[in-house]
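Input chain follows. Return structure tokens only.
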Amino acid sequence: MTKTDVPKGRSFQPLMRLAPYALRYRSMVAMALFSLLLASGATLSLPTFVRGLVDQGLSQGDIGFVDQYAGWLLLVVALLALGSALRYYFVIVLGERVVNDLRSDVFAKLTLLSPHFYDQARSGEVISRLTADATQIKSAVGASASMALRNFLLFVGAGAMMVVTSPAMSAMVLVALPFIVLPMVALGRWVRGRQRFAQDRLADSSAFATEAIGAMRILQAFGQEKRARDFFSSRIEEAFGAAQKSTQARAVLTAFAIFVIFSSILAVLWVAAQDVAAGTLSAGALSQFVLYSMLAAAGLGGMSEVWGEISQASGAAERLFELLDETVRIESPKGGHVLSKEHKMDVVFDSVGFCYPGHPDKPILHGLNFTIKAGETVAIVGPSGAGKSTLFQLLMRFYDLSEGSIHLAGRAIDSLDLASLRGAMAIVPQEPVVFALSVAHNIAMGRQEADQSAIEQAAKAAHAHDFIQHLGNGYDTMVGERGIMLSGGQRQRLAIARAILKDAPLLLLDEATSALDAESEGLVQEALNDLMVGRTTLVIAHRLATVKKADRILVLDQGRLVEEGSHDSLIAKGGLYARLARLQFGFEET
């Protein structure tokens, strides 16, 4: 679908998928229905009391009867008030509960989706579904659905009582129904399509706003503020245009329905007035019929108003359920083997070939074969785009292989329990991820059950303790979104402390010291050297000090293993590694 395509209207089927969520709370649903029936029943009984009051009380001048009926009417009004209050409470709480569970399920599903999904999805658009769309559903499941059901009961109940009161007059009113219902059905589908289009455009604007706010310094540095404003404005203007057109349709539909309904009622009243004047119809019966016709008209008019809101909610539910229906590409196998720290973490790449799912015609890796023994430290070097970081992603099974296999501790990684596989590894990425939490919480992501003492020991080992102590609240300091309150080197030391705290048998270091100055690099490298003792370690490195200390070096070029050996042996060969040593490491061949 292109940006200018308007989807065709969909059915209300997405809203039906909310039923299992509501049925989790059967007692609340039962109370909501009971209170709805109580309020509707009280409302529908009022015209009957009015008829008796007019025919037997006012017409005959029986004040005692009037007093008695007034008391009954007061009781009915009290029941109406109680039922309305209970209906509002249970329906709104049920809506909040359903949407809360739906949001939770969608977010849980998002945590299971592989990086392939996030390679294509825009985070701002996904967040828009979790927030704006979920709020739209909450309105429908709560107030709108309740009002629609209430109005439906009033329409059906009042219509039935109109027939009981006067079949002839009811027939005149019912003649107008096809002129009301058919336009509602015809326009409803179109309105849903426009609303879905509006929601998609709002999601586009949210996605762009999320990206722009996160990169505002870059936008301002390159003078792109106006372009960003224009783009955002164009997206929300498209959303406004779609919403305006759907609202216009709803407004026309509402006006048409009200005109036809009340015109038919006026026609009936004119005929009924002739009958009352002729003595063939009592004033009380006329009053009763008029009140029921007003209730039926209000019910039908109310349904036409909430129809659009429910259509909006249907589009929102569809967008959320699209996320729930996303295929989980990487799953833990049933009965998958569980690793423990006692396993020897040998790593074997056997004829590994790989293409990213979105680009099956562009191989990244070609027939890689190598073995890393338990406890060995292996450096991986090569030009940019050689496939170094892809090795880590495959080892952690973020993607499945196109060809070949990877074995860890003697087992194919796709036969291992996924949580166990990733639990056996600690990674320090080139661009460390820091969350808008406290320093302590960020480090503790390495091991959630760690106490404050263990967190501080890990920070000390990563040479992060000193700068943490100088922050405003020490380990309780909030570091801001993406760790904006910290320098690049400080964020990287937190990531290293997180890896130290995890204490995993397999270390993956992707340029772990790239953001550190020379002094800090030396300190952290010393900590990493201590950490690597007895562990299998893979290091992606561009710095000579890191590479020279490795037991072996693997040299990749365009997804192929082209050289392998120690630093000295590879320098002596004078191949790609030697050229990289001169250009990248600043090493002079002798």
